[in-house]
Design brief:
The chain is an alpha+beta fold. It folds into two domains: 226 residues, 3-Layer(aba) Sandwich (Alkaline Phosphatase, subunit A), CATH 3.40.720; 144 residues, no CATH class. Helix content is 35%, strand content 18%. The strands form four sheets. Strands 2, 3, 4, 5, 7 and 9 form a six-stranded antiparallel sheet that branches. A hairpin with a 2-residue loop joins strand 4 and strand 5. The chain is globular and about 60 Å long. The two termini are 29 Å apart.
């Protein structure tokens, strides 16, 4: 939800422009700051940023997004298995129109990926259907020395300009994956699902796009790192993948879409309920990120207002009723400015409210106000340790 000032909003960010009394109430109770979630020499992906929020040393444990998708699906990886996120994308007249095939639904995507799998899978290649446009490819014996472009970074680009490039010993793997991209376009072009979508004025899922390659990571659990148990609530497989390696309970809420129309209330209720079982609940809501990718500042502002009125307000109300003191934090994993429609390395604004601690003087939560907050600029595991009361 973090962004840059937008002229149409009076040079305010969506966070500044949004009507968000519950979020500002949390801000008044707590202490604010900023967190560097992505090292300058690493790509600003959600997988890196979310692992950083949880305090992982991303330079040592990061192995791409594909391995997290695999963990969330329960796909066991051998040591030589290369896992990649595999998007269904929309290609129009040779241009990568969008990264999500028009936010295709899971039922249609399942049919496309399943039919495609029957034609291109082999002993070396396996495709696994996931959620919406987000799927998994596993290459037996694949080499991760390849340069893959995240499709959400390059909307409007000729797709051939951003196909996979080899680095070092990755030539064979890059050639194999590029061939699969072209073959998928030939197979999916006239698929009944896509013909129906086109007839309805929707973008087809007419190509796969493998990216973010890696091998099985070596990640410690939250219990090993901080002595706490955890639960993960999201609509995104990669978050459940992080949760699987962190040994967090996976809680899936009906109606969670990853978009503006997600089940905010259901996720908020599930988070409060989960506190009865675990020490730390990680509630992830994707809506503002997707609005940023669409460049839709009005929708992004609305998703922030929904977060405040339909999630934060409820959680604060329920926490206030509890006998046990509960710490509450609010943080984006990364910025997705509407003007850029992709992720950036900018530090993200956060709030931490730990009952009994004196609040700072920040009373309204946004990218600029938190710079005056108690915590200043944190790095590494500084945020999660502050939330858990384990700061040195």
């Amino acid at each position: 939800m973090s962004d840059y000032p937008i002229a149409e909003l009076g040079n305010k960010t969506p966070l500044m422009a949004a009507d968000k009394p519950a979020i500002d109430e949390l801000c008044k109770r707590g202490r604010c700051g900023r967190l560097e979630t992505v090292p300058a020499d690493m790509p600003p992906g959600s997988e890196i940023a979310n692992m950083a929020v949880l305090g992982y040393d991303v330079k040592n444990v990061y192995e791409g997004r594909g391995v997290l998708e695999a963990a969330s699906m329960g796909v066991e990886l051998d040591d030589n298995d290369l896992a990649l996120r595999c998007n269904l994308v929309c290609i129009e007249k040779g241009i990568l129109k969008n990264h999500s095939a028009g936010h295709i639904g899971s039922v249609e995507a399942f049919e496309l990926i399943t039919d495609l799998s029957h034609q291109i899978s082999s002993e070396q290649i396996q495709l696994y259907p996931g959620v919406s446009y987000r799927h998994l490819m596993v290459v037996k014996g694949g080499n991760k020395n390849i340069n893959c472009t995240p499709p959400h970074d390059v909307p409007g680009t000729p797709f051939r300009d951003v196909m996979i490039k080899a680095e070092g010993e990755g030539t064979a793997t890059a050639g194999l994956l590029n061939d699969l991209i072209i073959r998928s376009q030939e197979i999916l072009r006239d698929h009944p699902v896509n013909l129906k979508r086109i007839a309805e004025g929707k973008d087809p899922g007419n190509s796969i796009w493998p990216w973010s390659p890696g091998y099985r990571p070596n990640m410690k659990t939250l219990k090993e790192l901080y002595g706490v148990t955890g639960a993960m609530i999201s609509a995104v497989d990669l978050l459940y993948g992080i949760g699987a390696y962190a040994c967090m309970k996976a809680i899936k809420v009906e109606g969670s879409t990853g978009l503006w129309d997600t089940n905010y209330e259901g996720k908020a209720r599930a988070a409060v309920e989960a506190l009865k079982e675990v020490d730390l609940v990680y509630l992830h809501i994707e809506a503002s990120d997707e609005a940023g990718h669409e460049g839709n500042y009005q929708l992004k502002t609305r998703t922030i207002e929904y977060l405040g009125s339909r999630v934060v307000k409820y959680i604060l109300g329920e926490v206030d009723k509890m006998d046990e003191e509960v710490a509450v934090a609010l943080i984006p994993d990364h910025s997705t400015p509407c003007a850029l429609r992709t992720h950036t390395h900018d530090p993200v604004p956060f709030i931490i409210w730990r009952p009994g601690e004196k609040p700072d003087n920040v009373t309204s939560y946004d990218e600029e106000s938190v710079k005056e907050g108690y915590y200043g600029l944190l790095k590494g595991d500084g945020f999660i340790k502050a939330l858990l009361g384990k700061s040195s």
